[in-house]
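User: Sequence recovery, please. Input:
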């Protein structure tokens, strides 16, 4: 495993492998960076099913079945849309653990007056 991988990712990878759990990501703001970090772990193929970069709202709607009205009402980077992309991820990857993330990494405010931030939703049955 690369020395550039964080201790957190290394620990998660070891636990996922030991417990024989699988993992998949839907990433908006990070657009695949988190899945890429996990892919560098030793034996990543045993737990990482993959990830989807869904930076654009169109991808959220068409591939992850997020309702366009939800995106319009709450914004593509909202906690509500984060929940929805995580749910939509299940039709693409039947993983034990699904993680969706959206937000603004730059720290800027949205036009609709919503505070910037980063949102993560996970599903583990």
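Assistant: Recovered sequence (125 residues):
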């Amino acid at each position: 495993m690369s020395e550039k991988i964080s201790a957190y990712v290394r620990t998660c990878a070891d636990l996922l492998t030991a417990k024989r759990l699988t993992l998949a990501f839907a990433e908006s703001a990070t657009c695949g960076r988190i899945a890429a970090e996990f892919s560098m772990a030793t034996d990543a193929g045993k737990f990482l099913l993959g990830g989807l970069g869904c930076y654009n709202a169109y991808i959220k709607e068409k591939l992850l079945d997020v309702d366009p009205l939800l995106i319009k009402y709450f914004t593509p980077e909202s906690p509500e849309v984060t929940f929805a992309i995580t749910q939509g991820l299940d039709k693409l990857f039947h993983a034990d653990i699904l993680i969706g993330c959206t937000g603004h990494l730059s720290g800027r405010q949205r036009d609709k007056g919503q505070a910037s931030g980063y949102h993560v939703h996970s599903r583990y049955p």
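Strands lie at 23-27, 48-53, 97-103, 118-123.
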